[in-house]
């Protein structure tokens, strides 16, 4: 049995790991790499003559922990390059992945249309770009991929080959997210087991179940996004959010702009606002949700409410709707989105993306960044170099939508809505494993320093067999 690390090695994005059991090849995750710019990706893909560093036609099965694009976003390219197997995931992950990949394909189509338009202007009318990026996929590729998904239930063992069984264990973090337990039976009857953590959630998170413990394994592949950090704000989400609303929309009649991810984070936010409204704490403010993707994600959360935590299930039973409340307005078209800028009363605007990198949120930030009565509230992780990261690091001016603007709006941050477990949550996840029985822990999905620091923390706790792989490193297990 051989395990090769092809993604999210000493970086957060691009999760992709290849497990080979004799001639049976299992790809765990198939995510987009946001750490490479377009020029770097083109150079890498041209060198590989593929989006992938392996032959996709030789892959038998894909195992997917959850829907986020840094875990799922390259699946259509896998089929585009000849993969013919199934993608195994939970039911909710199947549904959420579908809308995320469709949205991604729509953005790719716009990218292609723009390139074709430029080509037409330079050449004769109707000429098309033929040398478009290798990683560009369209709706037809998403459709092909989604037709080959195989949804499974939590906590049931499934046989995916003669010698390999998999079990999906609730991980929190996102609706449908799972730790994947892989059990491999050798020809002589000996069993070896691995666990791929996916992204480890946190306890007592709005809507989501707590991460469940994983049975003892031989090899643990563990994410480290928050491997050297603790969540700073330990207040209940409603209390933390209401504090910001009171200061930014009531005491000062301003507007509160919240960049957030459409899938998962927006639903936690709307659920918390709904509870505040029903408790008569939320003032009579318009709350604009400006993301078509978040509307689809919200419907999926309603559909799979049986997978939510006990509090959310009881709330839905008592109130029917998890997310809808008076004064909540869903924005659909681009014209309606832009019209929100003309709304003169104090309000809350929720829009994607969470890192302020693309999406409608860029328009709202551009329209309000020089308004001292506006507040931009960051509620999640922002990768280095993104606009969200620059705002959090106190830059006094930014370039947005091609224009240089002064940062006069107030910038605030709370981390009560972060879906990632912090260092102690990751420690709890690992400490379900007996250090004497673990043969190795592989650290992935985190910045290099976070991995090194978490390795040191594990050593203090008695876990000394810890490896930080590099891209392309393979290990015989």
Automatic annotation (TrEMBL):
Keyword set, alphabetical order: Hydrolase
Presence of the UniProt keyword Repeat in the record: no
Domain of life: Bacteria
Residues covered by the Beta-Casp domain: 266-391
InterPro entries: Beta_Casp, MBL, Metallo-B-lactamas, RibonucZ/Hydroxyglut_hydro, RMMBL
CDD domains per the UniProt record, alphabetical: TTHA0252-CPSF-like_MBL-fold
Chain ranges of the Metallo-beta-lactamase domain: 13-261
GO MF entry, a single one: hydrolase activity
Listed PANTHER family: CLEAVAGE AND POLYADENYLATION SPECIFICITY FACTOR FAMILY MEMBER, INTEGRATOR COMPLEX SUBUNIT 11
Name used for this protein in its record: MBL fold metallo-hydrolase
Taxonomic lineage: Bacteria, Pseudomonadati, Bacteroidota, Cytophagia, Cytophagales
């Amino acid at each position: 049995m051989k395990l090769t690390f092809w993604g999210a090695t000493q970086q957060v994005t691009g999760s992709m790991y290849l497990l080979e059991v004799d001639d049976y090849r299992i790809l765990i995750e198939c995510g987009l790499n946001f750490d490479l710019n377009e020029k770097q990706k083109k150079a890498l893909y041209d060198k590989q003559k593929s989006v992938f560093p392996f032959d996709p036609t030789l892959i038998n099965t894909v195992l997917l922990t959850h829907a986020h694009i840094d875990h799922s976003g390259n699946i259509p390219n896998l089929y585009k390059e000849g993969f013919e197997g199934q993608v195994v995931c939970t039911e909710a992950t199947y549904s959420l992945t579908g809308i995320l990949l469709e949205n991604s394909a729509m953005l790719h189509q716009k990218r292609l249309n723009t390139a074709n338009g430029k080509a037409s202007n330079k050449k004769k009318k109707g000429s098309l770009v033929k040398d478009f990026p290798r990683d560009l996929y369209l709706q037809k590729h998403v459709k092909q991929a989604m037709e080959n998904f195989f949804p499974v239930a939590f906590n049931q063992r499934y046989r995916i080959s003669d010698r390999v069984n998999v079990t999906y264990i609730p991980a929190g973090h996102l609706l449908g997210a799972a730790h994947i337990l892989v059990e491999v039976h050798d020809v002589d009857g000996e069993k070896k087991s691995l666990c791929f953590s996916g992204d480890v959630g946190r306890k007592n998170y709005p809507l989501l179940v707590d991460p469940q413990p994983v049975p003892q394994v031989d090899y643990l592949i563990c994410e480290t996004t928050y491997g050297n950090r603790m969540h700073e704000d330990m207040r209940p989400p409603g209390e933390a959010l209401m504090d910001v609303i009171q200061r930014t929309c009531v005491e000062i009649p301003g507007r509160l702009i919240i960049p957030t991810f459409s899938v998962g984070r927006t639903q936690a936010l709307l659920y918390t606002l709904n509870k505040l409204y029903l408790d008569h704490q939320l003032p009579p403010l318009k709350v604009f949700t400006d993301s078509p993707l978040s509307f689809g994600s919200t419907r999926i959360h309603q559909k799979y409410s049986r997978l939510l935590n006990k509090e959310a299930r009881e709330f839905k039973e008592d109130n029917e709707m998890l997310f809808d409340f008076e004064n909540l307005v869903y924005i659909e078209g681009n014209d309606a989105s832009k019209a929100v800028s003309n709304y003169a009363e104090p309000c809350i605007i929720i829009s994607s993306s969470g890192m302020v990198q693309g999406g409608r949120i860029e328009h709202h930030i551009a329209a309000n960044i020089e308004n001292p009565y506006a507040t931009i509230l960051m509620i999640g992780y922002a990768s280095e170099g993104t606009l969200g990261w620059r705002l959090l690091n106190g830059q006094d001016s930014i370039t947005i939508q091609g224009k240089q603007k002064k940062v006069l709006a107030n910038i605030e941050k709370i981390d009560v809505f972060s879906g990632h477990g912090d260092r102690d949550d990751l420690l709890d996840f690992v400490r379900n494993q007996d250090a004497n029985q673990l043969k190795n822990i592989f650290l992935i999905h985190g910045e290099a320093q976070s991995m090194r620091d978490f390795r040191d923390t594990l050593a203090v706790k008695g876990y000394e067999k810890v490896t930080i792989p590099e891209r392309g490193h393979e290990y015989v297990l």
